[in-house]
TrEMBL record:
Keyword tRNA-binding on entry: no
Gene Ontology MF annotations: ATP binding
Highest rank taxon of the organism: Bacteria
Listed InterPro entries: AAA+_ATPase, ABC_transporter-like_ATP-bd, ABC_transporter-like_CS, ABC_transporter_ATP-binding, P-loop_NTPase
Protein name: ABC transporter ATP-binding protein
Annotated signal sequence range: none
Length: 312
């Protein structure tokens, strides 16, 4: 299957000498939700800007739906919707005029029924005749989303879409994203709310200092890099770790009543059963067991830390 977006060795160096992107290569498949994670200044917004034609790369090549963005700029932009971080709307226009103008700007035929349904889905229909300057911050964010979807794009970029918005809008937005994916729209989002990426995304990409350091299926990423923590609640206090358990990543709780064991979710041999067999052979009794798997946020933080350490 041909990727909907193909990014090949993209470079971006500003006049100041700052290298925002350093050989980024990435492919996005049609109909997927791809989450791009990274700390502030990692290059997320710059990368989105290059794909959308807002930032001119210093080198490399990008195609969208098989079209080179440099040679076919207008056709590519018709296929892309962008919800930026910052508000970018005319404050003196009504909601309806704003989305209608945005649709016409991309050369689409008028379709008032589609726009009406779009505004209803975003809880904007009752505000359609209201000037944007009179809307709340959350409502203005909804207008940005409506603008991005007005021309029925095949690809939707969401750059920190829920930063600073209310819980209701966040819920409505993710509901709409699921519907768009069902209709075949490809969605690329950047977010600081890692739980949203964990809940929504099919694949996760991590960018740090202008380089992609990892791209994985979300499930595979959790399996490969996730850690599980087993807590063994002991029947009696334990003073020290027995020598038979010395090779395990295991510690004793402060109250001496629990063993805390960390192991990889990918290593089937490094799991719970072998440890429990050793505990039985040592006549160490326990009352209960509990497990906790590392979150995507913990994995993300560890990946970035490893990248920083390797660069030093």
């Amino acid at each position: 299957m041909q990727p909907i977006i193909a990014i090949e060795n993209i470079q971006k160096t500003y006049k100041s000498g700052f290298k925002a992107l350093n050989g980024v290569s990435l492919t996005i498949q049609p109909g997927e939700i791809f989450a791009l994670l990274g700390p502030n200044g990692a290059g997320k917004t710059t990368l989105i800007g290059t794909v959308c034609g807002l930032v001119r790369p210093s080198g490399g090549r990008i195609t969208v739906d098989g079209l080179d963005i440099h040679d076919n700029y207008r056709e590519v932009r018709q296929r892309i919707g962008l919800v930026p971080q910052e508000l970018a709307v005319s404050m003196f226009e009504s909601v309806w005029d704003t989305v209608k103008f945005s649709r016409g700007l991309f050369g689409c035929k008028p379709n008032d029924d589609y726009l009406a349904e779009l505004l209803k889905n975003l809880s904007l229909w009752e505000k359609k005749d209201t000037n944007i300057m009179a809307l709340s911050g959350g409502m203005k964010r909804r207008v940005l989303i409506a603008k991005a979807l007005a021309h029925e794009p095949r690809v939707l970029f969401l750059d920190e879409p829920t930063a600073g918005v209310d819980v209701e809008l966040r819920r409505d937005m993710w509901s709409m994203i699921r519907k768009l994916r069902e209709q075949g729209v490809t969605i690329i989002l950047t977010t600081h709310y890692i739980e949203e990426a964990e809940d929504m995304a099919d694949r996760i990409g991590v960018i740090s200092k202008g380089e992609i350091i990892l791209v994985e299926q979300k499930h595979d990423l959790m399996q490969q890099l996730g850690k599980k923590t087993l807590t063994v609640h002991l029947a009696e206090p334990l003073d020290k770790i027995p020598e038979l358990l010395a090779n395990y990543d295991i510690s004793i709780s402060d109250d001496s009543l629990s063993l805390i064991y960390q192991y990889s979710t990918a290593d089937q041999q490094d799991g719970v059963a072998p440890l429990l067999e050793k505990l039985a052979s040592l006549n160490i009794g326990y009352q209960d067991l509990s497990t906790k798997q590392s979150s995507l946020e913990e994995i993300f933080v560890s990946l970035v830390a490893e990248k920083v350490e390797a660069a030093q």
